[in-house]
Amino acid sequence: MRTTTGWRAEGGELVRSALQRRDLRADDIAVRVDHCGVCHTDLHHLRSHADGGAPLVPGHEFTGVVTGIGPDVTAFAVGDPVAVGNIVDSCGTCPPCLAGQQNFCREFPALTYGGTDRHDGSTTLGGYSREYVVREAFAHHLPEGLDPAAAAPLMCAGITVWEPLRALGVGPGSRVAVAGLGGLGHLAVKLAVALGAQVAVISRTADKADDARALGAEDFVVSTDPEQVERARDRFDVVVDTIAVPHDLAPYLKMVAWDGALTQVGYLGPVSVETMDLLVGRKKLTSSGSGGLPATAEMLRFCAEHGVVADVEVLPSARVGEALERLGRGDARYRFVLDLSDLD
Ligand SMILES: NC(=O)c1ccc[n+]([C@@H]2O[C@H](COP(=O)([O-])OP(=O)(O)OC[C@H]3O[C@@H](n4cnc5c(N)ncnc54)[C@H](OP(=O)(O)O)[C@@H]3O)[C@@H](O)[C@H]2O)c1
Ligand SMILES: [Zn+2]
Ligand SMILES: [Zn+2]
Question: Where in the numbering of this chain does the Enoyl reductase (ER) domain appear (predicted)?
Fold first, then answer.
């Protein structure tokens, strides 16, 4: 085993700890993690983590540099800039895997943290650490020209909104609204704008209206203002809902245009839907999570071409507690990224 350092949950806090990484298997690469984004999912996991259960080291959107390669590795060399997202393995043989949708693997993909390693059954430990070991097939070359800190959030927040935008055919002329302007939401705005869509933001207050315009949105709907919600009725071909908490879908479905779709990618859990809200206008309700390997590679190429990265506040990893606390109270503009070099 190899030893590295990371931030492990203990007693409700993240504590700097020694972590074990596996010795490289034939198709593994070792990655020095330089930057890891702080996703709201990390907060959900930390809130529900119990001491004595499976170990928890969050972090599933990171960039770094390859520091070692197994004997069968062909796509990477030591020194290559690399990006890793929230899936690190899958069965490779089921229909979704064969279709390049490893995120829908029938055996459930191995998640970057809190997942189960497919070979030794251990719990995976995430990117809030200085080193990660991953199968080369699940790592991506970081395109030149993308800032490694600002690109890290593309690997979860970015791909999570890219897949539904693509699957729902967003392009020039599409009318897209993004509900919840946070980590996922601000990247959804940038990506939809770069795809040529007309974009609106739906947010709880008017506080982020200037930011939304700076991100490229042409319109802004305050979700707590019934008049604004009414004016937005039947207006959007696609509503991307990234809101991090359970909420009533009805107002968002009402904003979907005939034959359009509400795609719920933020809060994942049971929702109740009034079927009449779907019936009137033949509206669709969809969801998805993360993305397949080909879509992730496509997104990275697109981002390099269009200069799309996250708006980030980079903090030394020792300030991870502050980042999580501020994210929890909605004070992120728009993604915290940890600089892990302080773990050396
Ligand atoms: N499907 C997937 O694979 C996937 C992947 C990553 C994350 N997620 C989930 O997506 C959600 C968003 O993640 P994120 O990292 O973008 O979070 P975030 O940066 O905290 O953004 C969430 C946004 O939700 C809105 N919101 C509305 N009511 C809220 C409330 N009571 N508390 C907090 N936020 C509220 C806020 O937007 P306004 O201020 O504009 O109202 C906030 O900016 C999380 O639930 C996360 O677990 C899903
Ligand atoms: Zn995430
Ligand atoms: Zn599979």
Answer: 11-338
